[in-house]
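Run: sequence + adenosine-5'-monophosphate-propyl ester -> complex structure.
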Amino acid sequence: MKTKILSVASKRLVFKPNLADYEKEYKRFSYTEHEFELSYLNDHKINAAYNAVDRHIISWRKNKIALFWEGEDGTAKKYSFLDLCILSNKFANVLKKYKVKRGDRVFIFLPRVPELYISFLAILKIGAIAGTLFSAFQSQALEDRLGNSDAKILITNSELKKRVDVVRKNLPKLEKIITVEEEFWKEIEKASSALHIAAMSKSDPAFMLYTSGTTGKPKGVVHQHYAILHEHLTAKWVLDIKDEDTYWCTADPGWVTGIAYEILGSWSNGVSTLVYEGRFDPEKWYDLLSRYRITVWYTAPTAIRMLAAASAKLVKKYDLSFLRHMASVGEPLNPEPIYWGLKAFGKPFHDNYWQTETGGIVIANYPSLPIKPGSMGKPVPGITAAIVDDKGHELGPQKEGNLALKPGWPGMMIKIWRRAEKYNSYFKNGWYITGDKAYRDEDGYYWFIGRSDDVIKTSGERVGPFEVESALIGHPSVIEAGVIGKPDQMRGEIIKAFVVLKKDVQANDKLKEEISLFVKKNLAGHAYPREIEFIDKLPKTRSGKIMRRILKAKELGLPIGDTSTLEEY
Ligand code: PRX
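>> structure
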């Protein structure tokens, strides 16, 4: 395999990066030696929310702005670390009033509004497990997640609540729904701001997120309080967050990036963070970057490609000279957007790699190292990565294989909720297998090749084909469906569904639209098929499993490979 090596970080840095000597730190690194960077409660116990917010109020950062918030309508609000501390203490007391105890699951289903951040911190502060739900989810997706987790309390708004009301009868464990328009602020006003923060063991669960695999319903990935150490160090070293920065992470806390680097790791470093409630819009984004004088920006390849596709004149209208460091995550960042970034901002985007399961960045490009455009970079200090074959044996440089990590870093998931066998299936021969194919070059840089399973990444959002297929067969005209990710220039992939219709149903474009909308309304606003093809029969194994790789190969005009397990087709 030929790798083109280009170095774009050749310009001398005009600032000192937090991780000045990658190789030295990587070699000497141990997590225990960095534990002094955390703050502890009594008996050497920790709490991730305390580390993110409360510990700053006994320092000069007390009145520093932690959260600059801007709504889609232009409303702006500011919260200092002290404000967040008090508000989350108060809401924690509200939750206690509703008998929330350690280990109970409390879910948040909100757009990026201040109440989301306050709730998240409050849940962790009393030792309960915070779960987040992306606001595009619809009833079916909500039922699956709230049902599997046995969520006790849900915090939402009155509009989104309607989607939960539809399935509420199937959620007997859901005791209470708190809406931000009603109880949330009323209860906060009455609540005490004095709180005894729960002193947690390192391995106690802090938060959980549902994420998708190839088969079955989404799984609840659970993270421990100690993950804060990994998130803190990577925010410092990879995102290069410094005290004087104003930082913008464009992710949504419905996904793990929003939790680890919009709440925990970033605030643990005491940075002022911008949260913008609204949707992607090139002009608005440039306006925010410029108005808030953003210095560190963490975003995603689809957004970068969309910015690059917008008018070249637009970026020139804004003063973006404050930007110092830019990073990207979630899907492959091909070299073109990096070169575009260089042209538009005078600096490159630094790609990094991780997963919901890894809890924090594991492979990255750093300000102090040359970038090889197209490469995810090198393992962060504390992470041992390798390329292994299907038996878990290490492969040498330039050999394509499974990207694997040595278990034991603090951010690694501690369990899959109620699915021990699923958790165990991630490990082989002492390695955590990521499910991604990659290779390493002679300099130790990792290069992404693709998923080894059928998981789809559309606009950087992870979607399981099974969930979409299940939603599709809920439509009265559909008998069965096979779903794949189809490569797309802008979104990385789009969801394509191959659908077998019931006999006598008229196949036409109107029906395609209707089916697509059906999934959008029942499953999620981001996880619906943008393309539908009607097909007579799906390729299946003799045991009846849909062979999505054959659908994909057909779609891409590629050879269909080994068909020995294929039933007659
Ligand atoms: O396939 C990889 C892709 O996103 C997956 C993880 O998605 P998720 O659990 O939603 O986590 C998002 C948090 C970053 C990975 O298994 N992925 C992530 N980063 C990259 C990437 N693919 C290529 N390059 C990346 N930098």
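>> summary
The CA atoms of residues 392 and 428 lie 6 Å apart. DSSP finds 18 helices and 26 strands in the chain.
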